[in-house]
Amino acid sequence: MCFLLLVYLLLSVTAQDVSTEEVDCQVYNHLYVCLANGVLHSVAFEDVNAVQTIEDIELHLEGLGIVDIAKDAFLEVSNSSALYIRDNQLSTVCKHYFTGLDQLAYLDMKNNTIGEIEDGAFAKLHSLETLLLDYNNVTAFRPGMWKGLSDLHELYATNNNVALKRNMFRGLRHLETLALDSNHIAEVPVGAFNGLPHIDLLYLSRNKISSLQPEVFRGLSDINELDLGKNRLKSVSGGMFRHLKNLNSLWLNGNQIVILKADTFEGLDNLSLLFLNGNELLRLVDMSAFAKMKNVTIDPGFKIAGATVENVCKVQGRFRCNHVANQSPYECTKIES
């Protein structure tokens, strides 16, 4: 049976105008995989009967040097729920790549060389919930790319070169997690996150963001975690976070913030975790900024007159605070009126 299947795969590849001398069909991770000059021509299960009893079928095609995918390459494995095709050499995601994979829920394309994604490339992946595009060369997203992905919940695109633009994520109306860390992002335009009403986790750390406009987070009222750590922020505009009523955790660590005004954290009454380590805070910290945060834990915390502040929401006055050592509380001196 297995021999006949291999013969069938070889013949089908030949029918696509690729000579059998160029085709290399081997068993890899319990799959028959046929490649020709880096082009993936077909994939089939080594044991068809065995996979019929498996509920979640995973296709592992990592590290095979794949540069392109032929049309209908996945027709013999159409009942798969996850595809791992990371660590290859794909430079473009074409519209025909995923034909037949309408049950796919998880797609891992990390660590390729992807610089272009055709509009409609994922249009046939109606069941996709998680898409990983980390460590590629993507510079832009367009709404047309997201056709068919209305049920996508998680998008990871860290370590690319994505430049944010207004409305670029429209169509991902059920997205809950968006990871854009390490993309050299310098600007976050108002409207960049339009059409994402259910975002729960937004990660923008390790970029080059030096300022944020007050309305940039409008419409993200469901957000629970926001990571702006390790950017170049020197200040945070008053009312910046006022639309984030449900925010639980906020990372501002590793920036260049030198001032916290009374209205810096307006609207964050329910915040539980605030990460401020790795900033300067030399000029001014108005402690009334924390007055409504009844249950917040601040990392690394503050020391006033040598004593660690236990309940920052009860502290009044304005202070100059110096970061003495990493993970040590800020040493604060009160500014006399």
The counted number of beta strands is 23
Total DSSP helices: 2
Q: Which secondary-structure class do the elements indicate?
A: mainly beta
Question: What is the strand arrangement across the widest sheet?
Answer: 4-6-8-10-11-12-13-14-15-17-19
What is the number of independent domains?
Answer: 2
H/E series: HEEEHEEEEEEEEEEEEEEEEEEEE
Can you tell me the residue ranges where pLDDT is under 50 for at least 5 consecutive residues? Answer: 1-11, 13-21
Biggest beta-sheet profile = 11 strands, parallel
Description:
With about 325 residues, the protein is mainly β. The chain folds into two domains: about 25-50 and about 60-130, Ribonuclease Inhibitor (Leucine-rich repeat, LRR (right-handed beta-alpha superhelix), Alpha-Beta Horseshoe); about 165-335, Leucine-rich repeat, LRR (right-handed beta-alpha superhelix) (Alpha-Beta Horseshoe). Helix content is about 5%, strand content about 25%. The chain contains two helices and 23 strands. It has helices at about 1-15, 50; strands spanning about 25-30, 30-35, 40-45, 60, 70, 80-85, 90-95, 105-110, 115, 130, 155, 175-180, 200-205, 225, 250, 260, 275, 285, 295-300, 300-305, 305-310, 320, 330-335. The radius of gyration is 25 Å and the shape is elongated.
